[in-house]
Amino acid sequence: MTDPKEPETSSEDLAEEINPVAGVEKTEDEAVEEEIEALQEEAAQSEDSEEEEDSEPLSIEEQLEKAKSDARENYSNYLRAVADLDTYRRRVNREKDELRHHAVSGLLESLLPVYDNLGFGLASAEQAPNLGVVVQGLEMVLSQFKSMLEENGIAEIAPAKGDDFDHNQHEAMQTQPSDEVEDGKVLQLIRKGFSLNGKLIRAASVIVAGGEEAEAEKSQNSSEAEA
To answer: Per-residue pLDDT tens for 74-109?
Structure first.
């Protein structure tokens, strides 16, 4: 007798028979993915609802009230800033006045000994028959005064004859021709200058050697001779 035909086995049935756990794992993964997708859809729906609530237009009364509130807040901030600036300005002015008074006080303390010595020198000059003694006393007072200026950061600007003319520290009052000094150099000091801590306070007034005046005089003399 011939055996009855066995039912044909498909490849999927064969795979399940070989690895029956594979189908279970696949089902669990699909369940997890479906749950994740459901959570994502729920979160998206909540976000959409929040956006709709936020995007809901305000009424005219609400907009007006919000504008008034913002205006009051801005004006309050403005007043606070103005008050802070005014307080800062007053404090800076007060500190400047204090520094100015302190500086004048320190300078006065340095000047008082010079003032006293000048008085002593004048009293001695009235009684001294020798003029040389008076000159010597004045020189001592002047030396003391120079030392006081240097201690307070004040320096003399006194260019000598033949020094280069510095337009940053010197002021040319006039030019004169000279056979001893080159053109463009200092010929004579008229008034000393001073600087305070390197900053120019007063430029030194000088006469500069130059041939411009000589040429002008020659041209004027020649024109007079021709006339």
So the answer is: 999 999 999 999 999 999 999 988 888 777 777 778
Task: Output the pLDDT for position 1.
Answer: 44
The rounded distance, in Å, linking the Cα atoms of 186 and 153 is 25
- How many CA atoms, within 13 angstroms, populate the side-chain half-sphere of residue 157? 24
pLDDT above 70: percentage of residues in the chain: 73
Give the separation between CA 210 and CA 76, rounded to whole angstroms.
68
What is the value of pTM for the model shown? Answer: 0.48
Nearby residues of 186 by Cβ (< 8 Å), 6 or more positions away: 159, 160, 161, 162, 163, 164, 165, 170, 206, 207, 208, 209
Architecture, CATH, for domain 155-227: Roll (2.30)
Task: Give residue-wise pLDDT tens across range 22-58.
Answer: 444 446 667 667 777 777 777 677 666 555 555 567 7
CATH class of the structural domain 78-152:
alpha beta
